[in-house]
Design brief:
Layout (H helix, E strand, L loop, with lengths): L1 H13 L1 H6 L2 H25 L11 H4 L2 H36 L2 H33 L4 H10 L1 H18 L1 H14 L17 H12 L1
Pfam family, one: 7TM_GPCR_Srsx
GO molecular function: G protein-coupled receptor activity
Protein name: G-protein coupled receptors family 1 profile domain-containing protein
Length: 214
């Protein structure tokens, strides 16, 4: 899903006008199908390969059969590298536009993306990488179980990092979040601040659209 989020942002930057007019439901269905092409076979394989061994800790590396667990962890390392690659393209793209047009808003977007990438590296990326490091170092079985189970600490950081980073770095995201809270409380939202849609600020507009689509 993290890969799809990064691809979603990349699509929004490369095709901003199409992204604005595309229908949300088919778009979400397409993302769901792409994610399912990876997730469903893993679940089915894990179910078919299950055995009666006691699971010491309830997490994917130890809950899945050894061969399924190895495939899951290695494939996640590859996916995480793809996520970093996509974010590198996004940061480079926005940074180039900001440098060529001297747009302060785009520089803010770059800093925001850099924070997201740093948090991602020290959360989910580190968790999956740590799972594989224990295998590569050939830890004893008991030590390997403890090592892989403690990698969940980094994973827990990842589960909520995007929300807090966006709340911290984006005024538009904070405004959209407060608007949703007001709507849930049956209150009339405050007047939305004007957001320029000029060509020099297209990245700012696309960022807002991306966050709303999430």
């Amino acid at each position: 899903m993290t890969l799809m989020i990064s691809l979603d942002l990349l699509i929004a930057l490369l095709f901003p006008f199409w992204y604005r007019v595309c229908r949300t439901t088919p778009y979400i269905i397409a993302i769901f199908v792409l994610c399912s092409l990876y997730a469903i076979p893993i679940v089915a394989w894990g179910f078919a390969a299950q055995n009666d061994e006691v699971i010491p800790y309830c997490n994917p590396p130890l809950g899945l059969a050894p061969n399924v667990s190895q495939f899951w962890s290695v494939s996640n390392v590859i996916i995480n590298c793809l996520v970093l690659f996509v974010y590198a393209i996004i940061i480079g793209f926005v940074h180039f536009r900001a440098k060529s047009r001297a747009c302060s808003e785009q520089r803010k977007v770059v800093r925001r993306l850099q924070v997201i990438v740093i948090v991602f590296i020290f959360s989910w990326f580190m968790a999956i990488l740590g799972v594989n490091v224990g295998v590569l170092l050939r830890f004893p079985p008991i030590l390997l179980q403890l090592w892989q189970s403690n990698m969940v600490f980094f994973a827990l950081i990842c589960y909520s990092q995007t929300f807090y980073v966006c709340i911290w770095r984006s005024k538009e995201y904070r405004w959209a979040f407060m608007e949703q809270l007001q709507l849930m409380a049956c209150q009339t939202p405050q007047i939305k601040p004007d957001i320029s849609t000029s060509r020099s600020q297209v990245t700012r507009f696309v960022t807002v659209q991306t966050q709303v689509k999430k």
